[in-house]
Amino acid sequence: MTEPILTLPNSPPDRDRILATLRQLAPDLHQRYGVTRLGIFGSVARNEAKPDSDIDIVLELTVPDLFTMVDIKADLEQIFQRSIDLIRYRPRMNPYLKRRIDRDAIYI
Predict the structure, then answer these.
(1) For the segment 51-102, what is each residue's pLDDT rounded down to a tens digit?
(2) Which CATH superfamily includes the segment(s) 15-107?
(3) What does the angle CA 81 – CA 87 – CA 91 come to, to the nearest 5 degrees?
C-alpha cells in the first residue's frame, strides 16, 4: 500500500491530508478490494476533529464481503496510525447513520 502517515502527537487528524492520502490509495484499493467509492464523514469531514478522534471512512464495494472490510480497515489503520471506523454505504442501512453520511461525506 503506502507508508504510514506520521502525525504529530496530540494533534487532530488533518482533513486535507487524509483526503489526499485516500486519493493516492484509491487505485490500489479498487484493484485489490473492489472499492468503487471512497470518502470521509464525521468530525474529520466537518473539520471538528480532536486529537483523539478516529477517522470515519465510507466506501462502496463491487462485491460486499466482511473479510474484505476487515482487511481494508487494517490497511488504513496502519497507514493513518489512527483508529478507523469503516462503513459500507448501502441502500438499506441504519437510517440515522445514512443521514449522517449523506450530510457530512466528502468523497474523493
Answers:
(1) 999 999 999 999 989 999 999 999 999 999 999 999 999 989 999 999 999 9
(2) Beta Polymerase, domain 2 (3.30.460.10)
(3) 165
| Cell triple for 13 | 487528524
Write the single-letter amino acid at 108: I
- What does the buried/exposed string (b/e) look like for 55-80 if buried means 16 or more CB atoms within 10 Å of the residue's CB? bbbbbebeeeeeebbeebeebbbebb
Quote the pTM value. Answer: 0.90
Question: For the chain, which residues make up each domain, given as ranges?
Answer: 15-107
Q: How far apart are CA 49 and CA 61, in angstroms?
A: 27
**Is residue 41 within 8 Å of 104, Cβ to Cβ?**
yes
Q: What is the pLDDT of residues 31-60, one digit of tens each?
A: 999 999 999 999 999 999 999 999 999 999
Place of cell 488533518: 14
